[in-house]
UniProtKB/TrEMBL annotation:
Keywords: Hydrolase, Magnesium, Metal-binding, Nucleotide metabolism, Nucleotide-binding. Binds 1 Mg(2+) ion per subunit. Belongs to the HAM1 NTPase family. Its EC number is 3.6.1.66. This is dITP/XTP pyrophosphatase. Mg(2+) binds at residue 75. Its cofactor is Mg(2+). The lineage of its organism: Bacteria, Bacillati, Bacillota, Bacilli, Bacillales. Homodimer. Pyrophosphatase that catalyzes the hydrolysis of nucleoside triphosphates to their monophosphate derivatives, with a high preference for the non-canonical purine nucleotides XTP (xanthosine triphosphate), dITP (deoxyinosine triphosphate) and ITP. Seems to function as a house-cleaning enzyme that removes non-canonical purine nucleotides from the nucleotide pool, thus preventing their incorporation into DNA/RNA and avoiding chromosomal lesions. The active site is at 75 (proton acceptor).
Length: 208
């Protein structure tokens, strides 16, 4: 598998936050990122897998085969201990199909608050949680598939803070920074995030 030799990396995503992060990461090694916004005719992929890895593979396979070009797919999400790992693979549609990030964040807080009835709801850190990212690089010419994985541990906090990042970042608190993920710079997020870790894992597996 040597498709990272190409000057253009196609990422099988319509998430603009992911596109920004991949563009930033790959720019460091002189690569341009294209996304599904550059290939509007590629149909949406049904993400009905039971795991992040399964969904990443579904996206990579469907888009790679449709384009006849190597692609990178990302399936990621948030797993919250107090919610037994939810929203997990349902993170993007936690508040319903087509939900906006703000709706999902609100749903997360209301679910956590309802679980904590009778306890001290004033406490700012509601539950330990982790972000998870599965990446799949797929080359339809050879059928080769390379998988990587990354996580980051934190806590869900009771009030949103910060306007960087995307998704659940404003509620994801990192004790070592005393900040939410949305208060970090893109470089800081990349250094510690599930996506940054999965990208480093991928680079290692590609041999550098
Ligand atoms: O770094 C992150 N910071 C905050 N939230 C995040 C992050 N990474 C994933 N998430 C959340 C957002 C979304 O609710 C779900 C991903 O769902 P996921 O299906 O992988 O992506 P998506 O539907 O937004 O775009 P696409 O499938 O086209 O890649 O997890
Ligand atoms: Mg999705």
């Amino acid at each position: 598998m040597n498709n990272l030799d190409s000057p253009v990396i196609i990422v099988a995503t319509k998430n603009k936050g992911k596109v920004r992060e991949f563009a930033h990461a790959f720019a460091r090694i002189g690569k341009e990122v294209k996304s599904m916004y550059d290939y509007p005719d590629v149909p949406d992929v049904v993400e009905d897998g039971m795991t992040f890895a399964e969904n990443a593979w579904k996206k990579a396979k469907a888009v790679g085969d449709a384009l006849g070009l190597p692609v990178l797919a990302d399936d990621s999400g948030l797993c919250v201990d107090l919610l037994d790992g939810a929203p997990g693979v349902y993170s993007a549609r936690y508040a319903g199909e087509g939900a906006a990030d703000a709706d999902n964040n609100e749903k997360l807080l209301s679910e956590l608050e309802s679980r904590k009835l009778g306890e001290d709801t004033e406490q700012p850190l509601l539950s330990p949680a982790r972000f998870v990212c599965s990446l799949v690089l797929y080359d339809p010419a050879t059928g080769e598939k390379l998988e990587s994985y990354g996580t980051v541990e934190g806590f869900i906090t009771s009030e949103t803070a910060g306007c960087g990042g995307f998704g659940y970042d404003p509620l994801f608190y990192l004790p070592s920074y005393e900040k939410t993920m949305a208060e970090l710079s893109m470089d800081q997020k990349q250094a510690i995030s599930h996506r940054g870790a999965a990208l480093r894992d991928l680079m290692t597996k590609l041999g550098g």
